[in-house]
Design brief:
With about 140 residues, the protein is mainly alpha-helical. The chain has helices at about 1-30, 45-55, 65-75, 85-95, 100-115. The protein has 2 domains: about 1-30; about 30-140, Plant lipid-transfer and hydrophobic proteins (Hydrophobic Seed Protein), CATH 1.10.110. Helix content is about 55%, strand content about 0%. The longest helix is centred in the N-terminal third of the chain and has 27 residues, at about 1-30. It comes from Miscanthus lutarioriparius.
Length: about 140
């Protein structure tokens, strides 16, 4: 009898763990409609491309507040659950590479990839995402 009870407890524990992990995965992943042409424009976030490049690549731009406002407005128009994916699509399709030498271009691109997820944070646009708060994972994790 003790062996059956311990097996039942083990099976129930495993089932609860699967339910919890499934719910956690569902909360952190973007819905299937978060693709270019549906919830994300085909050439998404053109204002964010300039803002991210300006903030990431040591470019002094007098219009930084305007670029930020444009970027935040464009992100706000995208459903919350698609914002992180939109930033990823932006970096995959429309990166703005600054610098004349290849080494500078690579550094600029890497800096943009690190900064882009931060655009939704409290310090920047303060926008809720698929994670339920102003947060995106690193772009390769979205």
């Amino acid at each position: 009898m003790a062996c059956c009870t311990s097996r039942l407890v083990l099976v129930l524990s495993a089932a609860v763990l699967l339910v919890v992990l499934g719910a956690e995965a569902a909360v952190g992943s973007a819905p299937s409609y978060c693709v270019p042409g549906k919830a994300i424009p085909y050439s998404p976030l053109s204002g964010c491309v300039w803002y991210v490049a300006s903030r990431s690549c040591d470019v002094v731009v007098a219009m930084l507040p305007v670029l930020k406002a444009t970027c935040c407005g464009q992100l706000q128009d995208i459903p919350a659950e698609c914002r992180c994916r939109a930033l990823r699509v932006m970096m995959e399709t429309d990166p703005l590479v600054l610098g004349a030498e290849p080494g500078a271009q690579q550094r600029c691109r890497a800096a943009q990839a690190r900064f882009a997820p931060a655009v939704v944070t409290e310090a920047e646009c303060r926008l809720r995402t698929v994670h339920g708060r102003p947060f995106c994972n690193a772009l390769d994790a979205e």
